[in-house]
Amino acid sequence: MTDIQVDGPLDGDELNALFHAAWPGHRDTDFGPVLARSLLRVTARRAGRLVGYVNVVGDGGVHAFLLDTTVHPDERRRGLGVTLVRAAAEAARERGAHWLHVDYEPHLASFHERCGFRPTAAGLMDLTGSTG
Protein backbone atom coordinates (compact mmCIF):
# COMPACT_ATOMS: atom_id res chain seq x y z
CA MET A 1 0.00 0.00 0.00
CA THR A 2 1.21 3.49 -0.85
CA ASP A 3 0.98 6.23 1.79
CA ILE A 4 0.23 9.68 0.30
CA GLN A 5 0.93 12.67 2.56
CA VAL A 6 0.69 16.42 2.20
CA ASP A 7 3.63 18.09 3.94
CA GLY A 8 4.79 14.85 5.54
CA PRO A 9 8.34 14.40 6.79
CA LEU A 10 10.94 14.70 4.07
CA ASP A 11 14.70 15.21 3.99
CA GLY A 12 17.09 16.18 1.25
CA ASP A 13 18.99 12.87 1.24
CA GLU A 14 15.93 10.79 0.43
CA LEU A 15 14.75 13.37 -2.11
CA ASN A 16 18.17 13.26 -3.81
CA ALA A 17 18.00 9.44 -3.83
CA LEU A 18 14.58 9.55 -5.53
CA PHE A 19 15.79 12.11 -8.09
CA HIS A 20 18.92 10.05 -8.85
CA ALA A 21 16.74 7.01 -9.55
CA ALA A 22 14.20 8.94 -11.63
CA TRP A 23 16.31 11.55 -13.47
CA PRO A 24 19.55 10.39 -15.06
CA GLY A 25 22.26 12.97 -14.53
CA HIS A 26 20.68 14.44 -11.37
CA ARG A 27 23.25 16.16 -9.18
CA ASP A 28 22.83 16.31 -5.42
CA THR A 29 20.87 19.40 -4.49
CA ASP A 30 20.38 21.28 -1.24
CA PHE A 31 16.60 21.05 -1.09
CA GLY A 32 16.33 23.14 2.10
CA PRO A 33 15.71 26.45 0.27
CA VAL A 34 13.34 24.76 -2.20
CA LEU A 35 11.22 23.15 0.50
CA ALA A 36 11.22 26.36 2.57
CA ARG A 37 9.52 28.19 -0.30
CA SER A 38 6.89 25.53 -1.01
CA LEU A 39 3.21 26.19 -0.61
CA LEU A 40 3.00 22.44 -0.08
CA ARG A 41 4.52 19.18 -1.14
CA VAL A 42 3.02 15.76 -1.57
CA THR A 43 4.97 12.58 -0.98
CA ALA A 44 4.27 8.93 -1.65
CA ARG A 45 5.88 6.20 0.42
CA ARG A 46 5.79 2.45 0.11
CA ALA A 47 7.02 0.55 3.17
CA GLY A 48 8.49 3.85 4.42
CA ARG A 49 10.58 4.43 1.25
CA LEU A 50 10.03 7.64 -0.73
CA VAL A 51 8.68 6.61 -4.15
CA GLY A 52 6.93 9.79 -5.30
CA TYR A 53 7.05 13.54 -4.85
CA VAL A 54 5.53 16.72 -6.18
CA ASN A 55 6.14 20.32 -5.09
CA VAL A 56 3.73 23.26 -5.33
CA VAL A 57 4.87 26.85 -5.00
CA GLY A 58 2.56 29.84 -4.82
CA ASP A 59 2.61 33.52 -5.64
CA GLY A 60 1.02 34.49 -2.33
CA GLY A 61 -2.30 34.96 -4.11
CA VAL A 62 -4.43 32.75 -6.32
CA HIS A 63 -1.75 31.20 -8.54
CA ALA A 64 0.18 28.03 -7.71
CA PHE A 65 2.76 26.18 -9.77
CA LEU A 66 3.33 22.43 -9.95
CA LEU A 67 7.01 21.45 -9.96
CA ASP A 68 9.20 18.37 -9.88
CA THR A 69 6.58 15.65 -10.25
CA THR A 70 8.72 12.56 -9.72
CA VAL A 71 7.88 8.86 -9.44
CA HIS A 72 10.49 6.17 -8.80
CA PRO A 73 10.99 4.08 -11.97
CA ASP A 74 9.89 0.92 -10.09
CA GLU A 75 6.51 2.56 -9.38
CA ARG A 76 5.67 4.08 -12.77
CA ARG A 77 2.66 3.29 -14.97
CA ARG A 78 0.42 2.53 -11.98
CA GLY A 79 -1.30 5.90 -11.59
CA LEU A 80 0.89 7.19 -8.76
CA GLY A 81 1.89 10.37 -10.61
CA VAL A 82 -1.75 11.24 -11.27
CA THR A 83 -2.59 10.52 -7.62
CA LEU A 84 0.21 12.84 -6.46
CA VAL A 85 -0.86 15.67 -8.76
CA ARG A 86 -4.54 15.38 -7.83
CA ALA A 87 -3.66 15.42 -4.12
CA ALA A 88 -1.47 18.49 -4.72
CA ALA A 89 -4.27 20.24 -6.64
CA GLU A 90 -6.79 19.60 -3.87
CA ALA A 91 -4.38 20.78 -1.16
CA ALA A 92 -3.53 23.91 -3.18
CA ARG A 93 -7.25 24.67 -3.59
CA GLU A 94 -7.75 24.25 0.16
CA ARG A 95 -4.93 26.77 0.73
CA GLY A 96 -6.54 29.40 -1.46
CA ALA A 97 -5.17 28.76 -4.95
CA HIS A 98 -7.60 29.30 -7.82
CA TRP A 99 -5.21 28.33 -10.61
CA LEU A 100 -2.63 25.55 -10.79
CA HIS A 101 -0.02 26.02 -13.53
CA VAL A 102 2.32 23.42 -15.00
CA ASP A 103 4.96 23.45 -17.74
CA TYR A 104 3.09 21.61 -20.49
CA GLU A 105 5.72 19.64 -22.36
CA PRO A 106 4.49 17.80 -25.46
CA HIS A 107 5.78 14.39 -24.33
CA LEU A 108 3.86 14.77 -21.04
CA ALA A 109 0.60 16.01 -22.58
CA SER A 110 -1.40 12.83 -22.00
CA PHE A 111 -0.18 12.62 -18.39
CA HIS A 112 -1.13 16.23 -17.69
CA GLU A 113 -4.54 15.74 -19.28
CA ARG A 114 -5.17 12.64 -17.08
CA CYS A 115 -4.35 14.86 -14.10
CA GLY A 116 -6.98 17.41 -15.19
CA PHE A 117 -4.84 20.05 -16.88
CA ARG A 118 -5.69 21.57 -20.22
CA PRO A 119 -3.15 23.14 -22.56
CA THR A 120 -2.99 26.92 -22.78
CA ALA A 121 -0.78 29.37 -24.58
CA ALA A 122 1.97 30.63 -22.31
CA GLY A 123 5.28 32.39 -22.60
CA LEU A 124 8.64 31.28 -21.33
CA MET A 125 11.89 33.21 -21.03
CA ASP A 126 15.22 31.41 -20.57
CA LEU A 127 17.13 33.43 -17.98
CA THR A 128 20.17 31.14 -18.04
CA GLY A 129 21.40 32.35 -21.42
CA SER A 130 21.51 28.80 -22.77
CA THR A 131 20.16 28.08 -26.21
CA GLY A 132 18.88 24.53 -25.58
Would you report the number of β strands? 5
Helical amount among residues, as a percent range?
25-40%
Tell me the name of the CATH class.
Alpha Beta
* Sequence of secondary-structure elements: EHHEEEHEH
Mean pLDDT: 93
> What's the arrangement of strands in the largest beta sheet?
1-2-3-4-5
Number of helices: 4
Counted up, domains total: 1
CATH architecture: 3-Layer(aba) Sandwich
Task: Could you tell me the CATH topology label.
Answer: Aminopeptidase
Stretches where pLDDT falls below 50 for ≥5 residues? none
* Structural class designation: alpha+beta
Work out the radius of gyration.
15 Å
The main pleated sheet reads as:
5 strands, mixed
Strand content: 25-35%
Q: Could you name the CATH homologous superfamily?
A: Gcn5-related N-acetyltransferase (GNAT)
Overall shape? globular
Distance between the termini: 40 Å
Provide structural commentary.
The longest helix is centred in the middle third of the chain and has 15 residues, at 80-94. This protein starts with a strand and ends in a 17-residue tail after the last helix. The protein is an alpha+beta fold and 132 residues long. The protein is globular. It has helices at residues 12-22, 32-36, 80-94, 109-115, and strands spanning 2-6, 40-46, 49-58, 63-71, 99-101. The chain has a single domain (2-115), classed as Aminopeptidase, CATH 3.40.630.30.
